[in-house]
Amino acid sequence: MSVTTMKWQHGETWYRIVGDVKNGKTPVVLAHGGPGAGHNYLIAIADIIAQSGRAAILYDQIGCGNSTHLQEKPKDFWSPELFMEELTLLVKHLGIDKDYAVLGQSWGGMLGMQFATHRPSGLKVLVVCDSPAGMGLWVSEANKLRDQLPPEVQATLLKHEADGTTESEDYVNAVNVFYERHLCRVPMPPDVAASFEQMALDPTVYHTMNGPSEFHVVGSLKTWDIHDELKKINVPTLIVSGAYDEATPAMVQEIHRRIPGSVWELFPESSHMPHIEEPARFKRIVNAFLDAKLNN
After folding, report:
1. Active-site residue 272, yes or no?
2. What is the enclosing helix (H) or strand (E) of 195?
3. In this protein, which residues make up the domain named AB hydrolase-1 (predicted)?
4. Per-residue pLDDT tens over the stretch 121-174
5. CA-to-CA dists, residue 134 to 80, 92, 103, 129, 245, angstroms
6. Which of 1, 232, 247, 273 would give a disulfide with 117, using CB separation of 3.0 to 4.6 Å?
7. On the CB side of 221, how many CA atoms lie within 13 Å of its CA?
8. Phi-psi region of 19 (alpha: psi -120 to 50; beta: other; left: phi over 0)
9. In the chain, what are the domain boundaries?
C-alpha cells in the first residue's frame, strides 16, 4: 500500500494505492461521493477489490479530506468539469491511463458517468453505485421519501429550510431520521463516520455544489442532468443500488435504460451503501463483473 499526492494547478490531490497497479490486472479508481465526503467510507470497497488481486486507488477529490482545501474559491469554480480534469490527470499521473476502470459511489457515480460520456480511451469498465443522472429527478424522488417520514420530522425540515436555519441541531437531527432509512440502515462503521466528520469540518464543496442536505439541493448541481448523454457511454457498465436507496429504483431504472448494455443489480436489504449493508453480495457481484468484463 502506498500513499502520496499528485500536484496540479489547483493544489495537491491525495491518493492511496491498495494493491499493485503493475501486477498485470486492470486497476480500479474509486470516486467518492458528497461532493466532498472524502475517501474514508470507500475503504471497504478498496479492500473488496484488492481481495481479487486487482489494485484499487482511493483518492480525496480536491477541496476535501487530505487534499488541498480551497475555501476561498468562488462558487463557479466547483463544477463537474473540475473533477473530470482531476480524474484525467490522476490516471495519467499513475501511469494507468491506457487501462483502468472507474467505480463511483453517489456523487462519484455521477462524476463517473459524465466522465464516461466523453469516452476516454483508457477507460475499460464503469461501475455506478447509488447515483442519479439528474438532480431534478433526485429531488423529486427524495420528496416522495420525505413524505413517508413522521409528520413532526417533515415539519421540522420544512420550517428550517424556509427559515434558512439548516445548520440548527433540530434540522440536523431531522435529517438523520431520513439518513437512517435511506443512507445507511446499519450502524455506521468508523470509516463511514470518518467521512461525515471530515466533511463537517469543511463543508465548502458539499454546501456549494449540493446544499445543506441530500434532499435540499440548492447548490450548483441543482440543474445538473446528463440523462440524454448516457447513450454515449461505450464501456461495460454495472449499476448498483439499494431497495431503500435515496437513489431510488425509479431513477436507477432510467440510467439502466439509457446506458447501452448496462447491468443493474438491486440490493434488497440496502439503502445508499450496499457495500456496507450487504458486503458479501457486493463483493461477489462487483468482482465477478470486473473479472468478466476486463481482459486481465
Report:
1. yes
2. helix 190-201
3. 27-279
4. 999 999 999 999 999 999 999 889 989 999 999 999 989 988 989 888 898 899
5. 13, 29, 18, 15, 16
6. 232
7. 31
8. left
9. 2-293
Q: 111 with 103: CB under 8 angstroms? A: no
Catalytic residue, candidates 245, 262, 271, 275: 245
The pLDDT tens digits for 237-262 are 999 999 999 999 999 999 999 999 99
| Catalytic residue (one of 32, 39, 256, 272) | 272
Q: Tell me, yes or no, if 213 is annotated catalytic.
A: no
Cα–Cα distance for residue pair 278/136, rounded to 1 Å: 28
Give all strands (DSSP E) within the chain, no chain letters. 2-8, 11-18, 28-31, 56-59, 100-105, 123-129, 237-242, 263-267
The model's pTM is: 0.95
CATH topology of domain 2-293: Rossmann fold (3.40.50)
Inter-CA distances, 8 with 62, 88, 144, 256, Å: 10, 11, 42, 35
